[in-house]
């Protein structure tokens, strides 16, 4: 039995693979993301109907000393009311003290409310109280607290009980009347037995009251306006909306048919105690429980009452417990309730929020004594939530220290020392664990299906603590970095006022977190700009932006926040206008590498663009600080395409602001023309992103010119209007000509469409979404790990966005590549080559360029119809067999693979000097530009033109073959060397910067026919006169010619192929079959003594590892060694029709294309079986 053995490559070996060190080109966000981002949707987190409880009615029906007739109290029985023994003093005084204490307890939650007590009241007292409070409260909320311990239980008809004047009878008070008197909005607390009866009937009466105005109005109108025969019934206008009693809130101590607890160890008003003094009753109840494990069971009630501190002092033991309790109950509610109910009950009103947090404790305690609290709106059971165990643990750890603390207190120590609870630190750790498991989810489906972290409200509470604040901000920043879903969640839980208040903080340690958090919030909800400007929070961002001690990433975040504050917000523009000169100073700062400051420069530039958008005053201030001049310089020189696009965008908003006003100063007029001339030069930028913004900016200039020639008030009167119009006309013509050139030659379809629209309909509103797209980058996940500099924890690199799944996929791909490179073809493998003719022929077109993928088994063919065809190596068309280049009227001359070791892109060059970059898997155009451009004459490849003789037929010098565009792609340096057969210079393009670094002049009139470069920065050009020119292009300033031009070796013997080996030697092949060796260091050359072909060479290529070259002549396909020795040849007349051929980079494969559209694959002995 044969078994397969699988070997697992160690991770340490995978990390050593050379492909990890190879750079990847065209991986910027603007290459792969959809720039037409949708507009951000409005965030529903603000409370539209925020309320405040301004009045509190305390109705105490106790009748101390007299028990209700329908309640049989136990003996002993609970008797404390508001922690006061009513039998320790006279009944009247006890009643007054109880009411006063209840008011004091409520005042802790709402100190500014208007409190009114009604002690053992009559029905008239209640009516007067309610009507008075509603008149004073207007549309604000009223709290009605009813203690019915001294009266009978509510009736089944919906009545509670009060007294007559002489206390001889219990008088029923209809809940219907109570609702009518007190009106809405209101909140009711019923601390009495059978409280559930009240809640059940409350809805019935509320619906009745809610419908009464509409029914009464209809009856009156129908009586006053009876219908007339033959006439339409008059339309009844709707009533104005008013607060409905259906929205009132109720809290009840127990359900119907349940009596209040009578345990003598508990207060009689246990429900009220839970609502108003939660910590005190929680501690007492906790000590009474026998089934809860405690670390110190010897704690008694007397010790509980001596816990030092106050509930408002978080540094004290009692205050810390209250802080923990608030966090626990808030978190339980947030995790258990629907968002709308949580917002209404826990965020709308401070007093209501406190009551409902304490209501959760009441549910837990009352259930232990057989009572089921009730509420409207009804809440799900929360008494068994697992966070109650965390609360029990916190109590245990606190009470364990209590004996020691009390000893310190008894010895006279005013502030006893104790170990603070680890509750918040533990919860932050749990939140950190959740983040580590979920923060790297990148797909929308994954984020939408995320379960919200239950600790998020606790993180909000921890922001109040200086000891945990930095860690909490760090975790919050990481959470918000998940994306819009996380921002919505944080805003809904109530994070906004906390982080707004922290903008007043002075600690430098918090700056990275706060500016990042605010960047995430402002990216999702731009309406926050109003709150920040009102609270002077923008000063925090200004100080961060101008603080050179902060990292560039943090300063970039501050610049983004300031940009959001001036975006379409006049008040923000006015407040931040004084910042523009300081931003200009930042942009004028020199940098060693553009990556270090690209984000900072991007958002500083966009800040200027938004600060003066539609704001003439800001534009005048910008002229004084020479901001447009700075942007023009950056537009021409900065290495980041996104920064250059931002400069063009900002200049566009500057010009559009000029068109929106009636008065244009002389300086601004001159500035506009200077900007237009700079923008014309940038129409030939290597990035379509930049060119589109340049087009939009030039459109604004054309509109400005149109206004200046038609309006006499556009330019101030101190300039001669005729001269101004003449100057504008000159620039206008240049701008128009430049835009027409875009229509004629730009390889980007979107650019052509924009330019055509501008020419045909100047007044049509067109715009890009570049600014919106830049802002949207903060709405997606993993901003920390992708775009920013240092300053936030858990950062993995400025330009990395890779999860574990992608890492393993890349590891497998790189290992596959390594195996192919580790077994390259050798000379002996080419002794015998077998031809396989592809069964599919390219119909009616000729294969012009062939390329075999170095690591995947397919062939790419560029045909004469301007399309790419894809075949497996056996000739079978691939699943997506055709890619339409979209280059009308031009011919494909060059073809190469970019990032072939990773995810392949295809580089296509056409004879009009256009380069297009496509994604091989999606066929999407990622980038395109004109590679050869004379910036002095503003024409494509126009300088140093020459008439190229017919190299295929030297006897006919008068015929001129078509121009051929040549380029060489260098993966190691991410550079493209481009030239043409009818010019004498080489353009060096840095694809990371998407700009031409410089041109290298050959000082020859013979044209350039082939290019090759290496990883050291050397570039060699094969000339039309048979010479080779080599340049050292390592310098950013200028190249060095290291192989000087020599005397032409033979007339019209153009170099058609070059090969560079590891020994710094070049092998050149001419169109006459000449082989010549060149020494790069010395420039010396020697022709190889090998039999020359008697015919012109139609196509040639060199195998990079096998030291083998292939030559196609008019009657044979020759295989030679790189020393000129003939291995073998295949003679056939069909080889006279060879249009192109190409070797595989590592394997023994040679693809050959013929003029009739047929393709053949020649394979060596080790590849024959595969093909």
TrEMBL record:
<dbReference type="InterPro" id="IPR011989">
    <property type="entry name" value="ARM-like"/>
</dbReference>
<feature type="domain" description="Raptor N-terminal CASPase-like">
    <location>
        <begin position="50"/>
        <end position="203"/>
    </location>
</feature>
<dbReference type="GO" id="GO:0010506">
    <property type="term" value="P:regulation of autophagy"/>
</dbReference>
<dbReference type="InterPro" id="IPR036322">
    <property type="entry name" value="WD40_repeat_dom_sf"/>
</dbReference>
<dbReference type="GO" id="GO:0071230">
    <property type="term" value="P:cellular response to amino acid stimulus"/>
</dbReference>
<protein>
    <recommendedName>
        <fullName>Raptor N-terminal CASPase-like domain-containing protein</fullName>
    </recommendedName>
</protein>
<dbReference type="GO" id="GO:0031931">
    <property type="term" value="C:TORC1 complex"/>
</dbReference>
<keyword id="KW-0677">Repeat</keyword>
<dbReference type="GO" id="GO:0005737">
    <property type="term" value="C:cytoplasm"/>
</dbReference>
<dbReference type="GO" id="GO:0009267">
    <property type="term" value="P:cellular response to starvation"/>
</dbReference>
<dbReference type="InterPro" id="IPR016024">
    <property type="entry name" value="ARM-type_fold"/>
</dbReference>
<dbReference type="GO" id="GO:0030674">
    <property type="term" value="F:protein-macromolecule adaptor activity"/>
</dbReference>
<comment type="similarity">
    <text>Belongs to the WD repeat RAPTOR family.</text>
</comment>
<dbReference type="GO" id="GO:0031929">
    <property type="term" value="P:TOR signaling"/>
</dbReference>
<dbReference type="InterPro" id="IPR029347">
    <property type="entry name" value="Raptor_N"/>
</dbReference>
<dbReference type="InterPro" id="IPR015943">
    <property type="entry name" value="WD40/YVTN_repeat-like_dom_sf"/>
</dbReference>
<keyword id="KW-0853">WD repeat</keyword>
<dbReference type="GO" id="GO:0030307">
    <property type="term" value="P:positive regulation of cell growth"/>
</dbReference>
<dbReference type="InterPro" id="IPR004083">
    <property type="entry name" value="Raptor"/>
</dbReference>
<dbReference type="InterPro" id="IPR001680">
    <property type="entry name" value="WD40_rpt"/>
</dbReference>
<dbReference type="Pfam" id="PF14538">
    <property type="entry name" value="Raptor_N"/>
</dbReference>
């Amino acid at each position: 039995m044969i078994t397969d053995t699988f070997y697992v490559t160690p991770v340490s070996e995978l990390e050593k693979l050379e492909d990890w060190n190879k750079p990847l080109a065209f991986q910027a966000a603007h290459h792969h993301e959809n720039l037409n981002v949708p507009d951000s949707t409005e965030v529903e987190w603000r409370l539209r109907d925020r309320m405040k409880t301004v009045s509190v009615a305390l109705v105490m029906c106790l009748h101390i000393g007299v028990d209700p007739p329908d309640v049989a109290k136990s003996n002993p029985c609970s008797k404390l009311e508001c922690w006061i023994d009513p039998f320790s003093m006279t009944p009247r005084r006890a009643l007054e003290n109880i009411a006063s204490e209840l008011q004091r307890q409520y005042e802790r939650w709402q100190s500014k409310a208007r409190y009114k007590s009604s002690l053992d009241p009559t029905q008239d007292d209640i009516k007067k109280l309610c009507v008075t409070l509603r008149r004073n409260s207007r549309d604000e909320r009223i709290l009605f607290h009813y203690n019915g311990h001294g009266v009978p239980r509510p009736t089944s008809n919906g009545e509670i009980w009060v007294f007559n004047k002489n206390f001889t009878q219990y008088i029923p008070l209809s809940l219907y009347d109570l609702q009518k008197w007190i009106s809405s909005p209101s909140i009711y607390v019923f601390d009495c037995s059978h409280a559930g009866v009240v809640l059940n009937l409350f809805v019935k009466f509320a619906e009745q009251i809610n419908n009464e105005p509409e029914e009464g109005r209809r009856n009156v109108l129908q009586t006053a306006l009876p219908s007339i025969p033959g006439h339409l019934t008059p339309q009844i206008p709707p009533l104005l909306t008013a607060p409905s009693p259906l929205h009132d809130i109720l809290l009840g101590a127990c359900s119907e048919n349940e009596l209040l607890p009578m345990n003598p160890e508990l207060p009689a008003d246990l429900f009220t105690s839970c609502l108003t003094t939660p910590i005190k009753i929680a501690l007492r109840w906790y000590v009474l429980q026998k089934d809860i494990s405690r670390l110190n069971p010897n704690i008694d009630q007397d010790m509980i009452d001596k816990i030092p501190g106050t509930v408002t002092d978080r540094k004290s033991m009692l205050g810390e417990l209250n802080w923990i309790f608030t966090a626990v109950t808030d978190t339980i509610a947030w995790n258990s309730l629907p968002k709308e109910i949580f917002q209404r009950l826990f965020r709308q009103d401070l007093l209501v929020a406190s009551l409902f947090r304490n209501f959760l404790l009441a549910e837990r305690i009352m259930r232990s004594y057989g009572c089921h609290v009730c509420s409207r709106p009804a809440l799900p059971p929360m008494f068994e939530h697992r966070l109650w165990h965390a609360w029990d643990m916190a109590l245990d750890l606190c009470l364990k220290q209590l004996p020691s603390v009390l000893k310190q207190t008894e010895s006279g120590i005013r502030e006893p020392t104790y170990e603070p609870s680890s509750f918040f630190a533990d919860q932050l750790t749990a939140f950190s664990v959740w983040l580590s498991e979920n923060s790297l989810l990148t797909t929308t489906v994954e984020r939408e299906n995320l379960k919200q972290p239950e600790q998020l409200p606790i993180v909000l509470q921890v922001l109040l603590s200086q000891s945990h604040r930095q860690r909490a901000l760090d975790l919050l920043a990481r959470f918000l970095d998940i994306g819009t879903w996380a921002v919505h969640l944080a805003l809904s839980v109530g994070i906004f006022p906390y982080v707004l208040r922290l903008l007043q903080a002075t600690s430098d340690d918090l700056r990275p977190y706060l500016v990042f958090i605010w960047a995430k919030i402002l990216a999702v909800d731009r309406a926050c700009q109003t709150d920040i400007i009102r609270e002077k929070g923008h000063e925090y961002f200004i100080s961060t932006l101008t603080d050179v001690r902060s990292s560039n990433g943090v300063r970039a975040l501050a610049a983004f926040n300031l940009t959001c504050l001036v975006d379409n917000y006049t008040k923000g523009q006015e407040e931040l206008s004084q910042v523009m000169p300081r931003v200009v100073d930042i942009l004028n700062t020199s940098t060693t590498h553009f990556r270090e400051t690209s984000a900072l420069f991007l958002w500083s530039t966009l800040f200027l663009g938004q600060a003066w958008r539609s704001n003439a005053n800001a534009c005048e201030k910008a002229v004084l600080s020479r901001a447009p001049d700075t942007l023009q310089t950056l537009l021409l020189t900065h290495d980041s395409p996104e920064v250059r696009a931002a400069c063009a965008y900002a200049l566009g908003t500057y010009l559009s602001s000029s068109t929106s006003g009636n008065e244009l100063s002389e300086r601004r007029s001159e500035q506009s023309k200077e900007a237009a001339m700079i923008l014309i030069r940038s129409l030939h930028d290597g990035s379509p992103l930049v060119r589109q913004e340049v087009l939009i900016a030039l459109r604004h200039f054309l509109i400005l010119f149109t206004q200046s020639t038609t309006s006499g008030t556009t330019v101030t009167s101190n300039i001669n209007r005729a001269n101004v119009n003449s100057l504008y006309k000159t620039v206008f013509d240049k701008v128009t000509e430049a835009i027409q050139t875009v229509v004629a030659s730009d390889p980007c379809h979107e650019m052509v469409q924009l330019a055509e629209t501008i020419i045909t309909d100047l007044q049509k509103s067109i715009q890009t979404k570049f600014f919106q797209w830049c802002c949207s980058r903060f709405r997606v996940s993993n901003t920390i790990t992708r775009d920013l500099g240092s300053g936030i924890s858990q950062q993995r690199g400025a330009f990395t966005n890779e999860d574990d799944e992608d890492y393993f996929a890349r590891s497998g791909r790189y290992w596959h590549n390594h195996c192919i490179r580790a077994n390259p073809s050798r000379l002996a493998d080419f002794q015998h080559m077998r031809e396989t003719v592809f069964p599919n022929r390219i119909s009616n077109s000729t294969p012009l360029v062939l390329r075999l993928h170095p690591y995947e088994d397919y062939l790419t063919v560029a045909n004469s119809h301007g399309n790419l065809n894809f075949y497996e190596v056996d000739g079978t068309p691939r699943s997506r067999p055709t890619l339409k280049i979209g280059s009308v009227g031009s011919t494909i001359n060059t073809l190469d693979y970019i990032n072939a070791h990773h995810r392949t892109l295809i580089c296509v060059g056409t004879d009009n000097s256009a380069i297009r970059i496509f994604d091989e898997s999606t066929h999407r155009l990622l980038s395109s530009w004109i590679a050869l451009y004379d910036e002095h004459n503003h024409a494509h490849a126009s300088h140093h033109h020459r008439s190229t003789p017919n190299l295929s037929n030297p006897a006919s010098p008068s015929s001129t073959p078509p121009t051929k565009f040549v380029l060489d792609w260098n993966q190691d340096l991410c550079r493209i060397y481009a030239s043409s057969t009818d010019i004498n210079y080489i353009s060096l393009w840095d694809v990371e910067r998407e700009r031409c670094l410089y041109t290298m002049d050959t000082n020859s009139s013979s044209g350039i026919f082939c290019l090759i470069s290496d990883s050291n920065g050397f570039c060699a050009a094969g000339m039309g006169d048979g010479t080779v020119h080599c340049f050292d292009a390592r310098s950013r300033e200028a190249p060095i010619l290291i192989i000087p031009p020599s005397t032409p070796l033979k007339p019209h013997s153009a170099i058609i192929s070059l090969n560079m080996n590891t020994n710094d030697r070049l092998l050149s092949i001419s169109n006459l079959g000449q082989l010549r060796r060149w020494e790069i260091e010395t420039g010396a050359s020697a022709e190889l003594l090998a039999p020359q072909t008697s015919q012109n060479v139609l196509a040639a290529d060199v195998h990079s590892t096998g030291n083998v070259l292939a030559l196609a002549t008019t009657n044979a396909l020759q295989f030679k060694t790189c020393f000129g020795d003939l291995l073998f040849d295949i003679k056939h007349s069909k080889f006279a029709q060879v249009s192109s051929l190409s070797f595989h980079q590592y394997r023994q494969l040679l693809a050959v294309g013929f003029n009739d559209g047929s393709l053949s694959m020649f394979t060596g002995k080790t590849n024959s079986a595969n093909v």
